[in-house]
């Protein structure tokens, strides 16, 4: 069911697509939009908050809301075997990755068994945040055997690409298997990392990366994509 303020979001987005507004131009006031759509200013404010989360709007204290410039959604081919960093490489300066953490996890039956790890052997959880146009667009969570990759923390601090790390260790042929695709929403921690206060539909992609030469499982991964940042193709 559509919320009362979503037509305001649609109206402003449509005008942005038509280039009605110029970059850094002041947008219609909350009062003006409240009258136009017969809403309260609080409801209109929610619409502007949503557009801020999407990266289209910024505000100046006491002066109103301004157009940040229209950001085209990025096409992402999910069926491609390339790493996420490789898929984003044509975007050059628009894309970046930040390492959030690389920490040991407590015993987790499913994760440890899938990685063929015995109880007591440490498993690392690697969390990375992907940015598009300086806005969080995806979160990548990986589980790896610490024994197999003893210096992974130091390497990822220099270069957060896990694929580049594997290549640096001579692992060139990597296969992705057991892929699962679901629609999800963000939990509290994920909303904090993604800078999202409301409900944003997300695509969750889970998979297993395997070394084609040794058949060893390298990584269990979960990638959470913001639905408002990408056009997904299979």
Automatic annotation (TrEMBL):
InterPro entries associated with the record: Bact_HTH_transcr_reg, Chorismate_lyase_/UTRA_dom_sf, Tscrpt_reg_HTH_GntR, UTRA, WH-like_DNA-bd_sf, WH_DNA-bd_sf
Pfam families: GntR, UTRA
Domain HTH gntR-type: 2-70
CDD domains cross-referenced by the UniProt entry: WHTH_GntR
SMART domains per the UniProt record, alphabetical: HTH_GNTR, UTRA
Example GO BP: negative regulation of DNA-templated transcription
Keywords associated with the record: DNA-binding, Transcription, Transcription regulation
Keyword Transcription regulation: yes
Keyword Nucleotide-binding: no
SUPFAM superfamilies, per database record: Chorismate lyase-like, Winged helix' DNA-binding domain
Name of the protein in its database record: HTH gntR-type domain-containing protein
């Amino acid at each position: 069911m559509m919320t009362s303020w979503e037509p305001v979001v649609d109206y402003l987005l449509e005008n942005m697509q038509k280039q009605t507004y110029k970059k850094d131009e002041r947008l219609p006031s909350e009062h003006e939009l409240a009258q136009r759509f017969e809403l309260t200013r609080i409801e209109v404010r929610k619409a502007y908050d949503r557009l801020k989360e999407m990266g289209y709007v910024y505000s100046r204290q006491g002066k109103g809301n301004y157009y940040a410039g229209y950001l085209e959604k990025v096409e992402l081919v999910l069926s491609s075997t390339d790493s996420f960093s490789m898929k984003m490489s044509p975007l050059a300066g628009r894309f970046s990755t930040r390492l959030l953490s690389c920490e040991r996890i407590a015993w987790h039956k499913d994760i440890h068994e899938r990685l063929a790890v015995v109880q007591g052997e440490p498993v690392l959880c690697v969390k990375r945040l992907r940015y598009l146009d300086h806005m969080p667009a995806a979160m990548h969570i990986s589980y790896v055997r610490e024994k197999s990759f003893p210096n992974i923390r130091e390497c990822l601090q220099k270069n957060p690409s896990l694929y580049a790390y594997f290549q640096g260790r001579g692992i060139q042929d990597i296969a992705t298997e057991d892929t699962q695709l679901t629609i999800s929403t963000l939990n509290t921690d994920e909303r904090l990392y993604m800078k999202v206060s409301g409900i944003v539909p997300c695509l969750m992609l889970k998979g297993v990366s395997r070394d084609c030469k040794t058949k060893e499982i390298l990584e269990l991964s979960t990638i959470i994509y913001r639905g408002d940042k990408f056009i997904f193709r299979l």
